[in-house]
Amino acid sequence: MTAQPRASRTLPLFAAITAITAALAGCAPGSSAPPASPSAQPSASAVRTDAAALGDVTLTVWDQEVRGGQAAQMEQLNKAFQEKYPNIKLNRVSRSFDDLNTTLRLALSGNEPPDVVEANNGRSSMGAFVKAGQLRPLDAFAEAYGWKERYPESVLRYSRYSADGKLFGEGNLYGLPQVGEVVGVFYNRAKLTELGIQLPKTWSDLETALATAKAEGEVPLQFGNLDKWPAVHVFGTVQSRVVPAEQISTLAFGRKGATWNTPENSQAAEQLVSWAEKGYFADGFNGQGYDAAWQAFGKGQGVFLIAGTWLLADLQKALGDDLGFMLPPGSTADAPPVATGGTGLPFAITAKSPNPDAAAAYINFITSADAMKVLADTGNLPVADTADQSVPDGPQKDVFTAFGTASAENGLVPYLDYATPTFADTLGAALQDLLAGKATPQEFLGTLEEDYKTFAESNG
Amino acid sequence: MSSKPRAAGPPGEPRRVAYLYLLPAFAIYAVFLLYPIGRAVQISLYDWDGLTLGTWAGLDNYVAIVADEGLRAAFGHALVLIVFYALGPLVIGLALAAILHHAKVRGLGFFRTVVFLPQVIAMVVVAVAWRRVYAPDGSLNGLLSALGLDGLTRGWLGDYTFALPAVGVVGTWFETGLVTVLLLAGMSRIPPELYEAARLDGCGAVREFFAVTLPSVRGEMAVALTLTVIAALRTFDLVYVTTRGGPGTSTTVPSYEVYHRAFGLGQVGSAAAVGVTLTVVIFAISFGINRFADRRVS
């Protein structure tokens, strides 16, 4: 290596960069994007619901239904749609959840975005798209097709935003989901029998069962929290035993008027810590992956597992009829059901789509009563008409009953990480700190309160 | 060089027409590199969510980087990773290369391949594999238990003290091969006469290493350090796959923050500011390394 006078070579480089930057300074980022004018809501009478009469149309659909039963139902429904409406050509683009999340943002800001997209409910996805005027409100379609009669409000609200995208959980409807999900308690029936434990009817029954399992040398509660977010579901479940559902909704939708600093929240945090201290969770849970944890549960390690219904198909394959699922039991046996839950990704229509009527007809088709039957047959959990599906007794029936009960009685509370754009991170890291004993329950709640307050107040 | 004056200047002297030859390459360079960099710098001066019209923020995003405790910590973690990615591999690589070179091992090619192998594997695959190794029921804990060291077993990536070093060790494992092969190549170019002379002067193997080998591969060391330091500072995939910045925030790194802010939180301006800062830091450090190496040579 020879000593070159580097400065003289790098100088023009800097000059070039500066020149280019200066040339750019005229156009602010986003200035080529369309103005955020929320498209006017057509009235229900203007909606054309006869898809066959819409002429030759091509619909581009972006979905994330790429795995097992999800892919199967989508293929089946798309095929049926094409047969029924040969005039509408479907151009399907499917990507994994992560890929869809990162590419959708760019696709929507282009001049020819897809017509129908599956957009994540959260503020940083659907909320941001609504704010940018990129999604079309679906209320007129909902009325024309009668969606509001078939979908309970506790489910629809996960796709509702105010027209400026600020308020989540109320306002216009921007999407319609196909599947539901609820976080509950999976259990290993064989282990319960072996340990002589009755199926817990109340929350304190469950704690007693955990203690028994620990004493017998079993892993009471299978858990892997390396990915940060799994603890959010466990905490949400514990929290919704003691904190009133309305307060949780206010906190989780990031609205003004609630606080994390309540005795109930601190009781929930303390209970979680006590479970960690008593060794109810699997060893080294903060260093164990989520997938590895539920796979271990599937291999018979662990008596209980607090997780979402999306694990049903995989766990059923591993455990067969030894697998059971229930809504988290309440403080008394007849307490109304409350559980963290929501919907799969809702299907939305882009504001620039030239064929909103055809797009709505498509969404209506894949969420119709017939479609719900296809969803159930392919092992998915239909979000509507759940109780009408006939499935054999066993874990799938457990899951259908649990979700049907919770949604019918409006017992679904939102995921806590919906609260603010940064809350998934804040809560995930704070829970790892709490469970590792690095933060006290009070410090934990203080961290959450700061994020929540800052956002709720600036959001108006 | 004879100084025979010619109209267009002496041969080999730069002439203006030369810039014309540079133009095609420069055009590509400008379109795919300079323009994006300029654009990133520009975006970093705005408050932009990636969708709607951005608003001018001046240096606010940069001020926020300095003020944000979490981000300062992220840069701190990247500096710790330099120890594992660059200094560790350099020391191990020097020792390995010296031994392989000195001992004239039979089957040198085989060992070189084995040592270099981690470099061939995609980082994501490496990360997934090491995640299994570090798991509470993984092979590292299995090994410790087998040795009777049950007291040391833990969920490595979930441990507040050991998560960052655990991630760093993966880096060491990954980079050592590259450094070793680079240094071996350098050592093979050292004239044998130098060693002969050293031996005549009564040098032992260790003295020989410090007096002959080390100064001769200084250039290769600088290259190795530059490459590995950059790798350390821009670590992303490893953290993304293994810990997502956890436990708590103990393994966050700047590159992860860039991704997270841009695609997770929709704070594109802030993400660009972190990216630009990271670029400047990388540029400054590699500049420093090369300056240092050059000066010592001359």
From TrEMBL, chain A:
Localisation per UniProt entry: Cell envelope
Region of interest: Disordered: 28-47
Transmembrane segments: none
Origin: domain of life: Bacteria
Keyword NADP (UniProt): no
GO cellular component, one term: cell envelope
Start-end of Low complexity biased regions: 28-46
Signal peptide: 1-25
Stored SUPFAM superfamilies: Periplasmic binding protein-like II
Keyword Signal: yes
InterPro entries: Bact_solute-bd_prot1, SBP
This protein's UniProt keywords: Signal, Transport
Family: Belongs to the bacterial solute-binding protein 1 family.
Protein name as annotated: Extracellular solute-binding protein
Organism of this sequence: Nonomuraea terrae
UniProtKB/TrEMBL annotation, chain B:
Topology class, membrane: Multi-pass membrane protein
Top-rank lineage group of the source organism: Bacteria
Protein name in the entry: Sugar ABC transporter permease
Record bears the keyword Transferase: no
Keyword Transcription: no
Localization (cell): Cell membrane
Pfam family, one: BPD_transp_1
Organism: Nonomuraea terrae
Alphabetical list of Gene3D superfamilies matching this protein: MetI-like
Keywords annotated in UniProt: Cell membrane, Membrane, Transmembrane, Transmembrane helix, Transport
Transmembrane segments: 20-38, 78-98, 110-130, 162-185, 262-289
